Amino acid sequence: MKTVTARTILLFLLCASFVTQAKVDIPDGVRYKKASDKINKNAKRILKRAFRKKKLHSIFSQKLVCGPGLWRAIKDHHDIGALKITPAKFHVPISKGPNAGKFQKLRGALFQKDKEIRILSKLIQVNTENGINIRKLNRNEIIIYWGLIPYDIEEPVFIIESGKLHYLVDVLKKNNKIFWIDEVSTYRIRKK
Asked: What are the boundaries of each domain within the chain?
């Protein structure tokens, strides 16, 4: 029987901590605040459970921002059209090309009432019935989110993949509620 030394245990623990900490490629100029593994894992667990039990409305904040990509996809749905959703406007800076220095104006929405949030959660639930994968944002998704918001990106923030759809969710640390949701697979980033 082989004995396990303290050195072997220490090496194992160091390797395990690097494996659990997913690498995030943060572009220059983006203010991105990482959270501990414990905070991210807990938020991820809560998200998975809400999707599995079909109780998405329970993890949405009472002030929920719907980003432009998701809003574009759902605004004409008959259940959404019947509501009086508060509009949200986003002024996204254009950094390249002939319109550099100008702003692109995009529309989103602010869901504030329980009925609004329940309808939104049902629409998302229908689109994720074939299962989900929750992961950290990649470089392009960070660039997209950074261009839409006036504050630092602060974990826990995830992409929830379901088929071709990629929902970006930003979660409040204090209560694990989603306060921002967008569908980011339709955005395109211009290459240099």
From this structure: 24-183
